[in-house]
Each structure stands twice: as C-alpha cells, then as structure tokens.
Amino acid sequence: MAGKIDARLAELKIELPQAAVPVANYVPVVIAGNTAYVSGQVTVWNGEFKFIGKVGQEFSTEQAAQAARICGLNVIAQLKNALGDLDRVKRVCKLGVFVNCVDGFTEQPKVANGVSDLMVEVFGDAGKHARSAVGVNVLPLNVAVEVDAIIELA
C-alpha cells in the first residue's frame, strides 16, 4: 500500500527517477540513528546527464532552478530506495546546494529555490529546511547543480 508521501507525489504528478548507483567509493545514503545523510545528487535523470555547463553562461538562473529540482528528485529517489517508505521522513533538516557558475554570479539562492520549493511541495511543513547555497567553479562531470541533504527520520 502506498504511503501518504507516495500518494502526494502521485497527486502532484511527480515522477521520481531511478536512484543512481554510486560510481566511486561511497554510498548514496548513510543512516545514523534517526538521521539520513544523502550524498550529493546531480542532474541525472534515469542515467542521462542533463544541465551540463555553467550557470550564467550555458544556463539562466531559471534553468538552473529546474536543474536543482532534478537534484532534489534524485535526493527523494535515494531516500525511497534506502528507506522503502518515504513516510519515514520526519523533517528535511538541511540542504546543501552547489551551483557551478561563472565568476560574479550571485543568484545561488534563486537557483536553490528549485529544490527548496520541491521539498515543501512534497513534504509540506516537514520539508521546510535550513540550507546553504554556494557558487563553485566546477562540479563533477561539469553538471550545473549538486544537492546533498540531511533528513530526520521517524
């Protein structure tokens, strides 16, 4: 039987991608006590990399917010894969949003809104979180955005 978060995803017509398999020596999710730490998720959708390039050069702020949303969908997919039941998510505590951007780009918070809005859409008040939005000079595979997460579990 689908839980309330799965039902919410269906209601919102939100499809989750397949949880990506790690390509290096790490795990996608570590659960320690009642906390899940989700490794950085990039702009991959079912094995296909999207949004390759720099924000402020190849991509606008609005496009980068869409990229951040994809990262967030990957965070949720990793949680579902690790937990089995998304109803175990008690609170999205913190998101780290890394933006591959040109020098002088200052709209990282607007990019991060793409994933922040998604978490509130899906988890309601439990999706409201602290966050960091940081500009970097490059990300793995030159993706535009990467997001990691700290989640409290019920």
UniProtKB/TrEMBL annotation:
Residue stretches in coiled coil: none
SUPFAM superfamilies associated with the record: YjgF-like (SSF55298)
Domain Endoribonuclease L-PSP/chorismate mutase-like: 7-148
Pfam families (UniProt xref): YjgF_endoribonc
Protein name (record): RidA family protein
CDD domains xref list: YjgF_YER057c_UK114_like_1
